[in-house]
Amino acid sequence: MAVWERMETLVSREETQRREEGCDTAGFRERIEACKGDREKLSALYDELDKLQVRADFPYKEPEGRKVEEIFALADPVPDVGFRGSEEELYDRMYGAWLGRCIGCALGKPLECFPFVYGRDGKAGWEIVKEYLEGANALPLNGYIPGTSASPDKVAPYCKDSFRENIRFMETDDDVRYLILALLMGEQKGNDFTPDDVAILWQTHLPVRMCFTAELQAYHNSMVAEIDDPEERYAYYATYRNPFREWIGAQIRVDHYAYANAGSPRLAAEVAWKDARFSHTKNGIYGAMFVAAAIAAAFNGNDPETCVEMGLSVVPKTSRLYEAIRDAVAMAKSADSVEALYDGLWKKYGHYHFVHTINNAALCAAALVYGKGDFTRTIVTAVCCGWDTDCNGATVGSLMGALLGAKGLPAHWVEPLHDTLYSALPDYHPVAISACAKRSVELYKKLHG
């Protein structure tokens, strides 16, 4: 790809991002079109977009995220109580969380491709997923995704190790790589780390070719930044030429901060904020905090809707994300079918990119409420809507695994993984999922006695 084409993509994404966060971008689309092929002019347009201010009449108040206190001030965090159970129960829930994340991710991986995530020809993604599963005679879905179907659409061929016919382990995926990296961060730094520590951890363990969108931009920025002031440096990591800063990347990285701070939603959210601000701002950060808080709450056996409410307690009530999750929960409670739920979500939030934080976090919340505590119903609801199928399956699977414990997970989901995870990270390819859970317990004990 030519360099100017890359800049053209970035500036086009930035126009969308600025418009969504409340800036007046009138005329910029036409100007971008007129500058095609001229990198210098495109770069100047990007700088103009970067300097725009949020409109005075924008109905939301959304702190950038540089200070966690500014976020909490617009939220209502619940008090932390810590994990309330025995060490044996803690291990069962830790193992359940690791397994649930792997199961949900493996379920969604084959569907993370066009047209399932985006839809096509006037059909929403969920409709095309349904057609595929009908063609595979796999409805109602109660197992991993079949690799073949009478449908003309095909699942992702690079995920063949997650096909129902083939699955023997959890194959590598960014959703599990970041889970391991967060475990390593906890073991090295506990809860006390900075975006610089995130940069060093990634540069040490994570090949840059395994990063995408916001993570890729922040990774690059962290390697070239020459800024002495730490806060300005961190802001540069997350924002410079990064139009993906409200996409889902931070939300999928923070589950282990919940594991390490089980039973403490506010603390888990604050630690997730430390990680998320390396690459994200605003709703990109809030989504990470929401997930971390909700999963931390699940370790004490709270029902899924209560977990969602505890997750929402750390999200600014003045944000687009808070509004979307509230809407999604209401849809889940009133929907008389999963198709009705999907239709409502797509009509209201389908304008977002398929890996944006807001639509996917809303879907996760809806799936947790609609699933009513049933593991299969919950992960299937999250995955079969379309959008970021593997990430959403992993997120709700993680929470449900923490809530139910490994002993409460259906055997037909667990057994095909053979307790084995391939991460593509050195020393964790493969690794026993149960061994990871044991390390999580030891980290919790180290942090909380």
Question: Can you offer a commentary on this structure?
Answer:
The protein has 21 helices and two strands. The chain is an all-alpha fold. Helix 15 (320-334) packs parallel to helix 17 and helix 16 runs antiparallel to helix 17. The longest helix is centred in the N-terminal third of the chain and has 22 residues, at 87-108.
Concise synopsis of the structure shown:
The chain is mostly helical and 449 residues long. It has helices at 3-20, 28-34, 39-51, 68-72, 87-108, 125-135, 174-189, 195-205, 213-224, 230-239, 255-260, 265-276, 282-298, 304-312, 320-334, 338-349, 357-371, 375-383, 389-404, 411-414, 433-448; strands at residues 420-421, 431-432.
Query: Strand order, biggest sheet?
Result: 1-2
**Spatial extent as radius of gyration:** 21 Å
**Structural class given helices, strands, pairing?**
mainly alpha
Percentage of residues in strands:
under 5%
Unreliable runs, pLDDT <50, ≥5 residues?
none
Approximate helicity band? 55-70%
**Principal-axis shape:** globular
Number of strands: 2
What is the CA–CA distance across the termini? Answer: 52 Å
Rounded mean pLDDT score: 97
